[in-house]
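Encode chain A's predicted structure.
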Amino acid sequence: MTSRVDLGCQRAPELLEHNASQEDTAHISFYMQFGVCLPHRWKYASAQLIADVAQETESLRFDSVWVTDHVIVPVHHVERGHIFYEALMTLAFVSSITRTVAMGTTVLATPTRNPVVLAKEVATLDALSGGRVILGVGTGWIREELEAVGVAWTERGRFLDEGIKVLRHLWSQEGPISFSGRYTNFREMLFEPKPARRGGPPIWVGGMSDPSLRRVAQTADGWLPWAVSAEELGEGAEKIRAMSGGRKITLACFSPADIGSKSIEGYVGTLGERHHVITGSPDQVVHTIEDFRKSGLEHLALSFRDVRLFKDETPDLLLKQMRLFAGEIMPAFRT
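Encoded structure for chain A:
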């Protein structure tokens, strides 16, 4: 599975030459992992398309496939409401038709799930898939969605913190298990099967806020922010390093991408935050990812032609760009 490195001792790998453009593009003696967001949302989402993209992602030698998450959405977020197949059920489907590719959530709005049920679902998926799950978690950001499932907006952070403790407790403890918390309580319970990996799959936390960074530093195995710049990634890593006590934490990123001619470079999110898009020609994108690598990035998950930005009528460009990335960009980071 995904390796983890110490954010406190990053070392820049030696730069080599990139065959795609011998004069001005770097090729790095460093294996960066890459993933693809599956088309499990938007108007063209279907079982057949999800299966086709998952299997092609594996055949193109990407390292991971990813799903995002919403359970229910208000009408003013229409771009998330056309079709949105549930995240873990989608990965269960994908696990049955793939063999090696890792499967991640980016990120699961954890307060929308009972943590005991979530622990069982993820443990089962990890066990049946041979240890391929990466569990990305967050608080959720649509207030109406959390309130629809009975979670108070102001409690979402505390709910997530306790939920992570419940997951780890159930995944790691043997025999009768008890837990006493603010939201979850049980005594003398049995929990089987355990996940394939001892202690459970890695938990990566999303978000850029100070509470999110503290959560990464104190409880997570990795950090998985959305649509940040290389500079923001590096700054966040510095803050995490200062609070983590030297723990090994994977530095990852989930980003919208538009590969080919340079297009939209950024956008303002629903909450007024600035987001960045990986875009440009293959050589330009290699340079962009090299900047991320210098900031310590290890795993980059890409949402090609992200539906919230481009709203394509068909997945044709998504598929074309995924293949272009695998053929002309990924090899620069695979020596």
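Residues 1-29 have pLDDT under 50 and may be disordered.
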